[in-house]
Amino acid sequence: MTSNSSILTDSHNRVHTYLRISLIERCNLRCTYCMPQQGIKLSPRSHLMTYEEIFEIASLFVKHGVTKIRLTGGEPFIRKDIDVILHKLSTLGVELSVTTNALLIDRFIPLLKECGITNINVSLDSLDSDRFSHITRRNEFEKVYKNIFLLVKEGFNVKVNSVLIKGFNEDEIIDFIELTKQSPIVVRFIEFMPFDGNKWDLSKIVSYAAIMESVREEFSAKTIEKLKDSPNDTAKNYKIKGYRGSFAVISSVTNPFCDTCNRLRLTANGQLKNCLFSAKESDILTSLRNGDSIEPIIQKAVQKKFKIRGGMNNIDMLKEPQRHSQNRSMITIGG
Ligand code: SAM
Question: Residue with the nearest Cα to atom 8 of ligand 1?
Answer without folding.
Answer: 335
